Each structure stands twice: as C-alpha cells, then as structure tokens.
Amino acid sequence: MSSAAEQEAVAGRRAAGNGQDERPAAVADGGPRRAPTAPAWPGAPTPLGARFRIGPDGVAGTNFALWAGGAEAVELCLFDDGGLERRIPLTELTHQIWHGFLPGVGPGQRYGYRVHGRWDPWTGARWNPAKLLLDPYARAVDGDFRLPPQVYGHVRDWPEQQAADTVRDDRDSAPYVPKGVVVHDDDDWADDRRPKTPWADSVIYELHVRGFTALHPGIPEELRGTYAGLAHPAAIEHLVKLGVTAVELMPVHQFAHEDHLLRRGLRNHWGYNSIGYFAPHAAYAASGTAGQQVGEFKRMVRALHAAGIEVVLDVVYNHTAEANELGPMLSLKGIDNRGYYRLQPDARRYADYTGCGNTLHVVQPHVLRLITDSLRYWVTEMGVDGFRFDLAAALARSMHDVDMLSPFLAVIAQDPVLRRVKLIAEPWDVGSGGYQVGAFPPLWTEWNDRYRDAVRDFWRHALPDVREMGYRLSGSSDLYAWGGRRPYASVNFITAHDGFTLRDLVSYERKHNEANGEGNRDGTDDNRSWNCGVEGETDDEDVRELRRRQLRNLLTTLLLSTGVPMLPAGDEMGRTQGGNNNAYCQDNEVGWVDWSLLEDPGWRALFDLASRLIRLRHRHPVLRRRAFFSGRAHSADGLRDLAWFTPRGTEMTEGDWFAPAATLGMYLSGRDIPGRDERGAPVVDDSFLAVLHAGERPVGFVLPGPPWAERYEVVVDTGLEEQAAPPGVEHPAGAEITVPARTVLLLKVAG
C-alpha cells in the first residue's frame, strides 16, 4: 500500500477530538498515579542531563536540561520508591533546550521525561507524551527494559501491520520502563595512575564483563558477572599472568534486549543495543542500581589501572535500541525523532546503515554533541583510556557517503581530551561504500579484517600465493603507510566476539547457531575455517593433536606479527561455543568463559604458550615496531631490516611471491630499528627468523648464512605440545633443518 493510501485508510479510523494534528486513533488506558507538583526554578540550559549542584541562595538541588528540538512542551517526571509520579513542566526554553532547577532533589532521585508535540509519522514527527522517555544524558539507569505493547509509541499489534506505525498508542509506559537516576559527581582521580601504554607496546584482550567473570571459581559468587567481579584480584591475576596491556570491554553502556529475543526466552548478551550513552549497564552492578553502579565501575577501572592494564570501551554510537519505525519508544524517538535519526526521503522510515533498524544522524550538531559529551565523560569522569567504535563508517558518513572529513572525525581530531586516548575503528558498516579498511585518518587505529582473513586462509592452506600474508605479517603497509600512519594503525586479530572462537575455527567448517532460534540463518557463512577432518568435537586423538597444533600456529602468528594484537577472552585456553558463530543472545555457558579448561594440561599448555609469546613481544622491540620496515640495506654488508626467504634459503624474488607456496621465512633485523628510546639512545635488539609452514608434509628449510646470521637458536616450536621452556636447540647458518607439517619455528640469531 502506498503512503498516500495508508494515510487515507488510517484517516477513516481517526477518533474524534484528537485535535488539529489529526492523529490516528489510539489505544488508551488509565493514567499513572500522580502527586501534586511544584513549579521548577528556571535553572540553566547547560550542562545537559541531570546535575546535582548548589543553586540560588545556596539551595541544593538538581538542574535538568533536555535538548528537544521541535517539541511543544516537556514534562520532567519524578518517581518515588512506590512508583508515585510527580510531573513538573519545564517552561524555560533556550536554544531548543528545555531546562529547570528542582530545589531539594538530590542523588538517587529516579526520573524521566514526557515530551509533547505532533503525531505525524509521514513527516517523521512521533511525539507521544504517554511514553516515559529515558534522559539521553542519564548517568545511571534503574530497572531493566521490558518490551510489552505499552512501550511502543504506535500500536504494536495493530491488525494491519503495514500501517501500524502510524497509529498512536496512548497507554502509559511508565510502569514498564526503567528510570534515570540523579548521580552525585565524583571527579576525584587523584589516586588513579593511568598506564598510558604506547600503541606499539599494546596487547588488547577483548572481554565481556559478565561472560569473563560468571564462572570464575576465584571470584565470590555474589560478584560474578559484575564490574566488581572484574576488579577482583582473581580476575586481574589472570590478565597479569597472560601479559595483556588493555582490556577492551564489550558494550557497557546501558542497553535493552530486543523484542524478538525476549519473545523466544533469550536476552541480548553482547550489548550492541545501546540506549544510555552515559550510564554503566545496570545489570553488571553488584552494589545496586540507584547510582551505585557508577562508583563500582570507577573502582573497577582503578583496580585495572593499578595492575598496569588500560580500559578500552566498545561503544555503539551508530544506532540505538529503538530500532526502526516498528520499534519501541524508549528515548530519542520520542524526544525528537527527526532530529536524532537519519530518515529516508519519505521521512516515515529510517535510513539503516547499521543493519539494526536505525542510524544516528551524526551530522546534526546536537547528536554530535551527545556523542562527544559521552566520550569525554567516560574519559574524564569514569577514567577509561580509549574506545573501539562499532561500525565506525556509519559515524563518518556526511549526508550519505562515508567522508573522512566528516564532522565526527573532524571534532574528534581537534578535541583536547579525545585526541589523546586510544581510538579504534571498526572500519565498515552495511551501507553502500561502507567498507573503509585502511581509510581512516591518522590518530585512528583499525580492526584489520584483511589480516584476519589472510591468516585464516594461510593456515588452512587456501591462499593462492603468499603476497597477502607478507603484507599482513609486516604491519600492512599497503593499507596504512600513508599520511604519517604507523604499523600500530593495524589492530591484528584472527578471532573476535563476532564469529568462531579460535578453538571452533579449527573444529568446525559450518556454523551451528540453532540455539539462537533463527533456523541457523543468522551469523556469517564465510568462516574461512578448517575442522581438521572432523566436524565438531571428537575423541580421535590425532585430530585433537592437530587442532591444538593449529591453535598454537594461529596464536604464534598473531603475536609475532607487526601491529597491535587483539585476543578475545578464552581463546588463550581453548574456549568453545560449540560451533555457534553468532552467540550474541547466549547469556549462558555458551557465551561465558569456561575456567575449568585451565585444569586440563593440554589447554593449560596453550595458555602458557600465549603468555610466553606476549612476554617475548614485550621484551623485544623488533616485534613491536613503531615504524614500517623499509626493506632496504642500511649497512655495507647488505643486511636489511626485513627480508623474506624461500625454503631454499634464498631471498624471495618477484616470481616467488606470485607462486603457490605453503612456506614463508621472515627475517627481522634488530640492528636496524628506527627511532630512539626515552633517553635518546638507539634502539637495538636481537634479530629473528620466523618460518611459517602450512603444508601437510614436513619441508626442508635452509637457514640463511652471513650477513644474516652465523647460527640460530630455536625459541618457539609449535610442533611441540609443551612450551614452558625454550627449546634451546641451535643450528649453524646454511644448515637445512626439517620443519614439521603445519608448524611455526621462531629462531633467534645467535651469532
């Protein structure tokens, strides 16, 4: 049915007395319990949100300020512990910001907004004062989002679904939605010492607050699944033993569960469905949700900092939990739908560059302000050290196309707070032209999925040649050597939260997502995995040994590559999701880290190898370079900072790069490292030869002679199950050694 036809059909059902905006007929119920009101003092339009302070005449209270462009009226709604609601009109309006000061209102007060305006979905206007709305600047949220029909601005279950979003629902949503909480500001970070780890020295560990701590036997039960649990010494001990320098927390902004999951008895586990950009997700708090979650989060950050570990947040500013025109009305949609979201030309429907139903309109100044205010808040008041931006290409879009001169990127580049923290882009979205790997400007690092794909393909012996592998191992200069960017612009990863775990990557060739309730249609089919001959778990010891060897190969490749390595929690000890490559709704043992794996000698050995490789990386600057390799000789003997070798012990020619191959030798010179240390001295290190062999049969490899080396010492051999102590085997230069099938050898130049 066309838009005009829909309007005509709905017009026939309009109720009398709806007023000049001619709203479609609404479903109504009894109003909420109300308390007497007192007028608000004028207050101030800045800062936005609810801020407790001392007002006129020394009176303590809270200033409330809400941007609601186009709204006709705004009511502040205060709730007591019994749910009694008190509505206070905000009558002051400054530059589209409604504001007022409430004397006597302090921390712990629960609140929301009702915003009045036209109901005209055909022009994008969706104001509905029956819906209680979460303050976009709320610093704490009390309660969880349920999604009964009452929380939708339209009649969700209208018989004619093609017109449902145009029929306003006048039932009150307040009993069914969480409330914002006034929080006392605490900016005291005097006892906090940020690690400030340089990018080149960083090793990132992607973890889920709940999933990482839910089963940890060393964390008290009452703290498992919480910020306090992650701050517990037992959790931090694992991070320190592993040697990572930063945790990248999967979304901790307040989020909501999708309706289709709740109807199937599932929940959103990953949290990529944000609705409160200033509030720590309340369900991860052990201490309470009436503002206590803020202090608990800060204490977690302090504990990690004290252990030398930075905190990076995975943030979702590209879309919200309100979905498309058929989604719930929780916050921005009811404050100013047209002002906050990108709409299609017909204005009724949403532009969707995210695959999640809506896209925030970052070109709008107030939306850009919301995002940057949120980012600064998490840095300055919550103590975090950086951000990974989900679907960052959506944020870099101007009106339609991705634009690396977009307002968002320009504001970040000049912001005195944000330009100093770690910024990681997921450099794509689902819209046209959204794939932007290598295109983000200096200051940014990027998730490098070309690294992921090349390494996966090499170890399943699916690359046509080794050109791609050479670029990825040496820092991806083909993608990042422009505009002053450095090798650490590449965040190297083989697995992440999205997709197979590392163990599943070598155990499954097909996704097994039946538990998600979507007929195994969700999740990617492009896994680039190899199950080593058997699909899923097996008792065949030969297959099990091969899989463990492949895991060692993948981990070793990741941690020897130039760039910033990222490892998802549990991959270092063989975590499995049973072949589920989209466990976003598995808030259970499928999505949690299984700590009992460390009791198995085989998986404990994998952890020991990962820890040893990270320590090796920390000790040797040649493995974490701050500048790209030149490949040129810097001395009379012809020694270069980077050289590539065939199994014959000869340097690779152009023809070798284009020929099918399963073996690659990479020489890293510690004598030619550019830059100086903190005291101005030249950086000098050992030199290494890495031999990566993905073939199914052993291969002979001739060790290069002078000027490269006189002899070599084996440092890592992934053909060995136990890696607790260095192999310590030496070989003279020019000798032909046997590299077992599917093995990485790392040899240190010994003379």
Question: Could you describe the 3D structure shown?
Answer:
It is a single chain. This protein has 751 residues and is α/β, with parallel strands linked by helices. Among the domains are: 134 residues, Immunoglobulin-like, CATH 2.60.40.10; 118 residues, Golgi alpha-mannosidase II (Immunoglobulin-like, Sandwich), CATH 2.60.40. Helices cover 21% and strands 18% of the residues. The protein has 17 helices and 29 strands. The strands form seven sheets. The chain has an eight-stranded parallel beta barrel. A six-stranded antiparallel β-sheet has the order 22-23-24-29-26-27, covered by helices on one side. Strands 4-3-7-11-10 form a five-stranded antiparallel β-sheet, with no helix packed on it. Helix 15 runs parallel beside helix 16. The radius of gyration is 28 Å and the shape is elongated. The protein starts with a helix and ends with a strand. Keywords: Glycosidase, Hydrolase. InterPro entries: GH (IPR017853), GH13_cat_dom (IPR006047), GlgX_Isoamylase_N_E_set (IPR044505), Glyco_hydro_13_N (IPR004193), Glyco_hydro_b (IPR013780), Glycogen_debranch_GlgX (IPR011837), Ig-like_fold (IPR013783), Ig_E-set (IPR014756). One of its GO terms (molecular function) is amylo-alpha-1,6-glucosidase activity.
